[in-house]
């Protein structure tokens, strides 16, 4: 049944795909953005990809700031469901971790409070696997939805803290308001072709490789997932009652950095793409001078694995092959002259 769905951060990389799939499924979408001038960007990105061009008329956009209360009550009024995607994802960690943590927590509470006050009972929240598997080692060899990151560990990053604490705040809020039916989607590193040239930090990993920005690669791996699968999980969860109260992991597979690079070398043999892995001691030395490298030092030597059994059972997910997603991401960047 078509619904009116409020989507926060609608101009984000993931959110654009969520809005696209919602419109294609016949839903009406109210999207929020902090910068109202980005409405034109959103409409331009969606237009060429809609199955039925006329459904763009089912989209409206409102200006909201996650750090302020102004406008939230009126904006969410009339919605049937909330998909909260908005949260910062930096390439390097901030000097003060509270600059990342506090907006994530407060923004989540603000969005959920507005939903509750508007009588919205269905909420899907974008979390992350960093809320599940950072700074801990799974005894079973892989992480699942029952795991939480250890925020007391000295290697816990500000980003992991922001996503973990924001998700925990959401579950606490849902516990205080039992009428609120919450599902969280916990994706790994999100890749896959963006809808326009305004894409997130995760795509910049592929961009840097294609540009040959780095002579060597860190000895680390990622749990990866295609952006279209992440969007599908958000949309499908809305109409899957069995997803209520669940944390659903969005990961296609775990892959080493060097294997991502090799996939790109195979696709673009004429480009100077680094495949040599740097010794950990070299990366630790470089981290003393480069904040973006410092943020990955705790992940050296790790390629964490995640169980998606629950996501497959509850939503019937069949994730796209990571190598195909990597190639399609690269093709978008190359074909559009972005690298």
TrEMBL record:
Family membership noted in the UniProt record: Belongs to the NAD(P)-dependent epimerase/dehydratase family. Dihydroflavonol-4-reductase subfamily.
NAD-dependent epimerase/dehydratase domain segment(s): 5-246
Protein name (database record): Dihydroflavonol-4-reductase
This protein's UniProt keywords: Oxidoreductase
Organism: Litoreibacter ponti
Species classification: Bacteria, Pseudomonadati, Pseudomonadota, Alphaproteobacteria, Rhodobacterales
Residues making up the signal peptide according to the UniProt record: none
A Pfam family it matches: Epimerase
CDD domains per record: AR_SDR_e
GO molecular function, one term: oxidoreductase activity, acting on the CH-OH group of donors, NAD or NADP as acceptor
């Amino acid at each position: 049944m078509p619904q009116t769905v409020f989507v926060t951060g609608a101009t984000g990389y993931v959110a654009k795909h969520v809005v696209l799939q919602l419109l294609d499924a016949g839903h009406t979408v109210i999207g929020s953005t902090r910068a109202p001038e980005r409405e034109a960007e959103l409409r331009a990105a969606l237009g060429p990809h809609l199955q039925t061009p006329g459904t763009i008329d089912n989209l409206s956009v409102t200006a909201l700031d996650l750090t302020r209360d102004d406008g939230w009550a009126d904006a969410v009024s009339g919605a049937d469901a909330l998909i909260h995607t908005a949260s910062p994802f930096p390439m390097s960690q901030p000097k003060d971790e509270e600059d990342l943590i506090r907006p994530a927590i407060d923004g989540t509470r603000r969005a959920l409070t507005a939903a509750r006050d508007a009588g919205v009972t269905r909420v899907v929240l974008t979390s992350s696997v960093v809320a599940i598997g950072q700074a801990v080692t799974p005894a079973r060899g892989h992480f699942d939805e029952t795991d939480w990151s250890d925020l007391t560990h000295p290697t816990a990053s500000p980003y992991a803290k922001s996503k973990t604490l924001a998700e925990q705040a959401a579950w606490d809020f849902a516990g205080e308001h039992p009428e609120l039916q919450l599902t969280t989607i916990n994706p790994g590193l999100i890749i896959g072709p963006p809808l326009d040239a305004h894409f997130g930090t995760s795509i910049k990993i592929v961009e840097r490789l294609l540009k040959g920005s780095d002579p060597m690669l860190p000895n680390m791996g990622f749990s990866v997932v295609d952006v279209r699968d992440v969007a599908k999980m958000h949309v499908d969860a809305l109409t899957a009652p069995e997803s209520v109260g669940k944390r659903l992991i969005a990961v296609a597979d775990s892959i080493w950095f060097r294997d991502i690079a090799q996939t790109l070398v195979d696709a673009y043999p004429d480009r100077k793409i680094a495949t040599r892995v740097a010794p950990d001691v070299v990366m630790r030395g470089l981290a003393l001078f480069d904040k973006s490298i410092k943020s990955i030092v705790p992940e050296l030597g790790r390629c964490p694995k995640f169980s998606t059994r629950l996501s497959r059972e509850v939503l019937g997910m069949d994730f796209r092959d990571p190598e195909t997603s990597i190639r399609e991401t690269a093709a978008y960047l190359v074909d559009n002259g972005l690298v």
